[in-house]
User: Which sequence fits this backbone?
């Protein structure tokens, strides 16, 4: 692992190494396909989940998104159990509640497209103006774009790109 090195990059993302590196710990990008319609024709097809182990920065506003969650805060949209105080969203037993709070909503697919040792800030060097960079479709390599296209063709749902900050 080459933490905090903005030149240490993997995957199918064109990382913006020209931007300011905050040295926070790195970033990674997932393409996810929300389970917005049934896909499985038998009960043996499992759902995928992401574990909210790091900070969700943003999703590409031009990529897919839930149609029934427009206007929701970003973390509530993808990690709805985080907002649950009484366990009503708990999908596991009471003993496992702490872990289940950090699971994403059910997904048809979740693929990590890349990670970087850099934490890229798109703004001024004093961090007053700007925001952390987040991946958009145009930031993917051709192979990364092809993965997104294949997932959309397979599931019939437009995938979303989620960028996380390793804190």
Assistant:
């Amino acid at each position: 692992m080459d933490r905090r090195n903005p030149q240490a990059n993997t995957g199918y993302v064109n990382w913006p190494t020209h931007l300011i590196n905050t040295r926070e710990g790195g970033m990674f990008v997932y393409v996810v396909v929300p389970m917005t319609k049934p896909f499985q024709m038998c009960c043996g097809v499992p759902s995928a989940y992401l574990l909210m182990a790091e900070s969700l920065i943003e999703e590409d506003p031009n990529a897919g998104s839930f149609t029934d969650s427009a206007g929701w805060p970003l973390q509530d949209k993808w990690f709805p159990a985080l907002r649950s105080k009484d366990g009503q969203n708990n999908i596991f037993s009471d003993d496992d509640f702490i872990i289940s709070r950090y699971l994403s909503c059910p997904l048809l697919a979740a693929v990590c497209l890349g990670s970087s040792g850099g934490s890229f800030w798109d703004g001024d060097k004093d961090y007053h103006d700007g925001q952390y960079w987040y991946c958009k479709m145009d930031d993917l390599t051709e192979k990364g774009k092809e993965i997104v296209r294949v997932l959309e063709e397979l599931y019939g749902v437009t995938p979303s790109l989620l960028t996380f900050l390793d804190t």
Observations:
- The first strand starts at residue 9 and ends at 11.
